[in-house]
Please model this.
Amino acid sequence: MHYIIFSLILRLTFDVTVLTEIWNINLDLFKNLFEGYTFYFDVPSDSIIGGVGVYVRNCYSCNTLNFFKINSTETNRVKNISTEILTNGHKYILGAVYRHPNQNINDFAKLLDQNQCQLANTRDPCIIVGDYCW
Model:
């Protein structure tokens, strides 16, 4: 809700906004919250808590990239989404990551490193954001 307040006060329009801990019970709200944006998300199927969401302005062409997905394990619960954003002939990859707290940090670091190596091979500009509390 801070976004709405900042947007009204500052009159800013963001191209991309990333949220973490979106929770399954809030999806209907998030899907319809901002006009002119498409909402991409990844939430747990076995819990209502956690999750990550990305708003991308509709003036951009955007695709989700499932082959960059970091898979959750029993010792490393993580939700994430990677999007390819196209604008003016340029391509950018945005990764949004939420790591549940109290999980094995070494497992997560290995998975994140593997993911970033895959992303680096594309040679496209990449931005990785999220909540992964070390």
Q: What stands out?
A: The longest strand covers residues 78-87. Residues 58 and 134 are 34 Å apart (CA to CA). The helical segments are 2-10, 27-31, 105-122.
